[in-house]
Amino acid sequence: MASVKQVQVTFDCADPERVARFWCEVLGYVVPPPPPGFATWGDFDRSLPPERQGSAFACIDPTGVGPRLFFQRVPEGKVVKNRVHLDVRAGTGLVGEERLAALEAEGERLVSLGATRVRLLTADGFNESCLVMQDVEGNEFCLD
Question: pTM of the entire structure?
Answer without folding.
Answer: 0.87
